[in-house]
Amino acid sequence: VFQSERGNLKMLANTLVLLSMTCAVFGQGRIPPLLPEEFASNIIQNKYNSNGFHVNHTCSGTYYSSVKHNAVRADCTVVDFSSNDHSKPSPLVANFASSVTDFATNINTVLTWTTIAGKPTCYSGPQAWLPPFSANFLTEVGAVYAGLEETTSGPREKWTFMVSGLSGTVFTFYFVGETQQLDKFEFFSGYTPAGNSSEQVQVGVHQQFYNFRAGNSTMLDNDDMFKMTTCSDHTGYMTTGDVKYNPLSVRV
After folding, report:
1. Distance of alpha carbon 29 from alpha carbon 216, whole angstroms
2. Distance CA 110, CA 124 (A)
3. Residue 177 near residue 197 (C-beta atoms within 8 A)
4. Which of 8, 115, 141, 165 has its CA 20 to 30 A from that of 191?
5. What is the DSSP letter of 119?
6. Per residue in 9-24, pLDDT tens?
7. Which of 108, 124, 132 is nearest to 35 (CA)?
8. pLDDT in tens, 55-96
9. For 114-153, how does the pLDDT look when each residue is reduced to its tens digit (9 = 90+)?
């Protein structure tokens, strides 16, 4: 019996080695796709909370990314649960939000309207997001080919990576095989809640791109596109020096 078990274990070990060699050859020599440095796209973004990965945040709108301006912007209609804990009763809260993340200053500024005619609330603080993608972004972060996945939109090639400064966060980028166009990305991150060092929880984000438009360095040169740098409480506007910025006026 023990000889038979040892034989089975040896066969299993040889099989695992063969499988690992096959996987290594399958991904060997693959070069990550290039990314557009200037682009705009419609998005649907879902955030999953740490309690059962229940969706507690949905953003539907337009996403702008610019290496030239070193900034990322998103204009969204947002639907949230009031509580991150889906086991507790939580009404839905809807609003309109416009955010600009300036990577030159590492500041993220968010304006939120509960009504279009009302005054926005404003938050400004440290950024915690991926920077605008350089063309070789995936190569620079050491992305690893993760195979082909059949999604509801068809087969997608996957590239996975982690980045410094975001410990425990794993990103996966999905591409359309024929065109190598960015289709979506997602990440899952583990963190320790404040005041509870013994608990490790997770959050996940899924961002799907639609109507993707890649452009050249002048595509996003609208004067008001990335000028949201300080908080100011005005009806539908935010002042940036002598410029009045209305997030509802900028469209792709």
Report:
1. 29
2. 6
3. no
4. 141
5. P
6. 344 334 333 333 333 3
7. 132
8. 778 899 999 999 999 999 999 998 877 665 555 656 677 888
9. 877 777 888 888 877 888 999 999 999 999 999 999 988 8
Cβ(171)–Cβ(163) under 8 Å?
Answer: yes
Query: What sign has the CA pseudo-torsion 121, 126, 130, 132?
Result: positive
Task: Specify whether the CB–CB gap between 47 and 74 falls below 8 A.
Answer: no
Instruction: Give the DSSP H/E element, type plus range, for residue 2.
Output: helix 2-27
From the centroid of its chain, how far is CA 203? Answer: 12
Paired tokens of 211: 């109507």
The pLDDT of residue 199 is above 90: no
Alpha-carbon distance of 52 to 69, in angstroms, equals 38
Residue type, 221: D
Rounded distance, CA 53 to CA 84, Å?
10
Q: What separation in angstroms does the CA of 153 have from each of 81, 137, 214, 249? A: 28, 24, 20, 32
**How many CA within 13 A on the CB side of residue 178?**
2
pLDDT score for 14:
41
Length in residues, the chain: 252
Could you tell me which residues come within 8 angstroms of residue 251 by beta carbon, excluding any fewer than 6 positions away? 62
Strand segments (E) across the chain: 38-48, 55-66, 71-81, 92-102, 107-113, 121-126, 144-151, 154-161, 169-176, 182-191, 201-214, 238-240, 243-245
Task: Give the pLDDT confidence of 54-63 residue by residue, as tens digits.
Answer: 677 889 999 9
Task: State the pTM of this model.
Answer: 0.74
